[in-house]
Amino acid sequence: MYVCGATVQAAPHVGHIRSGVAFDVLARWLTRQGYQVTLVRNVTDIDDKIISKGVTENRPWFAVAAHYEREFQNAYSVLGCTPPTVEPRATGHITHMVELMSRLIECGHAYAVDGDVYFDVRSFAEYGQLSGQKIDDLLPAGDSAGESRKKDARDFALWKSAKPGEPSWPTPWGHGRPGWHIECSAMAQAYLGDVFDIHGGGLDLVFPHHENEVAQSKAAGQEFAKFWLHNAWVTTSGEKMSKSLGNSLLVSEVVKRVRPVELRWYLASAHYRSNLEFSDAALGESAVAYQRIENFVIRAHEFVGHSDYEHNIPDAFAQAMNEDVNVPAALAVVHETVTQGNTLLQNNAADSEVHAVYNQVRSMLDVLGVDPLASPWADGTNSQEKTVEILDALVQDKIAERAAAKLAKDFAKADAIRDRLRDLGVTLEDSVDSVRWNVEK
Ligand SMILES: [Zn+2]
């Protein structure tokens, strides 16, 4: 699988990260089905916006790219996305791009003018097929400064000649930097070869990005992707979510309002091809729905008495997932199975019956990446913070008990409390008006 990753020029909001979650669910499902999944998700680390942000922030362009790449990686990992097999950066694959452009020029699909290289869209008969458009209906590409150098206004830039003060790399046609589309064609070929199964990305990438990827790769003689999957947008008031909405929808902010696993559940719950209309109310309702599932897993776990489970996917869930990753239908199976499990628990059913349902629910949650007893949720910082809070309350109770004993001049009891805590590794430090506690290192 090749999935178009982020252009790392701003912090990720929930709209950006939906694609990461959707394709993570697909990769998990394919893996569960026995496929060996190689997932390539690129990082676009050179781009007009990255360069101009470097200028406004007064730091090198690569510092901007590295900074936001880390923010994206954090967001993916906070939401429990399995890291891709490889995450190539565009700037690390310039030689592959030069090779591809040379081939395209050789076979008459591209041409160089004054240091720019353009793809000749009229030379490729299939141009427009992926997005279902006719070439004559298309607007000018408008993606380079050298519009007048093109043979046709719809030709798009593979390579842009260097401008003073901007980063550039040497090529046979002069110094410059890549156009966005050539990056993905070159990286897909470098890691997946001439033909691979699935190409994914956001719906907004169908045209021109993916149309242009197809043109470049097929014109160079590759078969390229067999299937295309495009995830829809996260919308607010019906509009595609955008940066102008401010910080409240940054992943780092939303996970302060709900737990990360609840945000993941919410983002995964819609069909990947449907828009997801974001609101805090819908997010809250979705979190409650997840908690119901989570509560069952925790209660069933207590009932069966251990964390092991056998993978057992109900047929209806498998059918839904195989039907173009129909997660809403798959979730209906999860809800039904949990209802069934809750009834069994209420009626104090036989261990084997509860265990069977417990196996099914955890297997399904594993595919969706939201099993509350699996990593990263089982050992999340939330539960660690909660544990520290509880520990503090319990130790404070003991400290109060000791103070009361001292006041009653029952020094034997006060010492016994201190000794007991010390045996457990908790030391008390008395000062004039308070007692502090520490865990021995
Ligand atoms: Zn791409």
Distance between the termini: 47 Å
What is the subunit organization of this protein? Answer: single chain
SSE succession: EHEHHHEEEEHEHEEEHHEHHHHHHEE
Instruction: Give a quick account of the main beta sheet: strands, pairing sense, barrel closure.
Output: 4 strands, parallel
Average pLDDT reading: 94
Give an overview of the whole structure.
- This protein is an alpha/beta fold.
- Helix content is 49%, strand content 12%.
- The protein has 14 helices and 13 strands.
- The strands form 4 sheets. Strands 2-1-7-8 form a 4-stranded parallel sheet. It has a 4-stranded antiparallel sheet with strand order 3-4-5-6.
- Strand 7 (195-202), helix 6 (206-219) and strand 8 (224-231) form a beta-alpha-beta unit.
- Helix 9 crosses helix 11 (327-346).
- The two termini are 47 Å apart.
- Bound molecules: zinc ion.
- The site of zinc ion has 4 residues, from loops.
